[in-house]
User: What shape does this take?
Amino acid sequence: MSSATNAHDDAHGQAHHKFHQHHFLTMAQQASSAKFGMWLFLGQEVLFFSGLFMAYFVFRALYPETWLHSAEYLSKTMGGINTVVLLYSSLTMALAVRSAQLSDKKGLIINLIQTIVCAFIFMVVKYFEYSAKFDHGFLPGALYHGHEFIPGRPELFFTVYFTMTGLHGIHVVAGIGVLFWILKRAIRGDFDSTYYIPVENVGLYWHLVDLVWIFLFPLLYLVR
Amino acid sequence: MANQAHENHHEPHVLPLPVYYGIFGALLGLTILTYAVSFVGLPESLALGVAMLVASTKAALVAGVFMHLIWDEKLNILVLAVSVLAMLLFFGVTLMDEMSRGLILPEEGTLFKQNEDAALKEAANPPPAEPGAAQAGGKGAKLKAAAGSGEGSAAAPAAAAAPAAGSGEGSAAAPAAGSGSGSR
Assistant: This one.
């Protein structure tokens, strides 16, 4: 509590933490409130994505043949690479939080940079995957003009594919944004073992993005 | 204020490094497993079941260890549990509706498809001409048999058999009830 402690005292005459907001009694209360808020947001994210997963299951139940054949045109290897990239980024994110807990500034910065690099790799792979879909005319809804024959309603599969992976991709991009914010603060030296809740909350968000992908990968790429 | 000062110096719960690497290794292993299983060519429903089981295990590892939920305040676990429960309710009720739609004839209101199938069968094979009194009994028996033969494909055989038997008692009763319930 040395570097991050401000010189000014609060009403109780106690040394006051630089990032201690006055409407919280203690730093611990502040941290647990922030984390609870983050979990409420993540609970909302689960419900938000569940609507899309529901659409997936309903359309799959209605057009099982379409699902079997459409998934053939997704690259299991590309999806697999992106899965490993996201899992590794989850590891580095968890290690970033651990570094912050141990007041290890250098470790925190290195792990955050690795996480950001993984997020960019994920988006680059996604770009190549989307390009291939566009070239084949595998577009959502009315835009669909696939040349290969797929039985049933392939435009529904690709609507679900683009909506789910697209919204997940937007979450990855938002993740890159908040990771840069945390990186900037880490370089400024804001975080140590007494105050690291922003790192932890961004980490929770990043792990949720990983969790969604853990279900998207087998459902979209590994149908058969 | 001693207690407050203690809380201010709250020590973070730090996990040893091998835990992180171990979990990452397990996640990689499960990814390779689910990738490999997809080439085996299991029946579709079994493949989906295995894939979801593996994905749920991976999700539990990430949520439990990487998201620190195992050692976290119980309140945060409750938030996740409630949203997952809400999601499963949403899935369950919607799928129940979705799966049972094929069983119902929209033009007849709430009439089950099995009734219609039985009626069609009856129309295709009219019962042999008999005196009127005996005919009603024969009809009922035939419809019961028709409902019985459909049991293999029906989602809820018991529920399907009951309305079929009911309509057998008087072939005009069921449609009359259907139109009476306000569908047209």
The longest helix of chain B spans residues 74-100. Chain B touches chain A through 57 residues (CB under 8 Å). Chain B has eight helices and no strands.
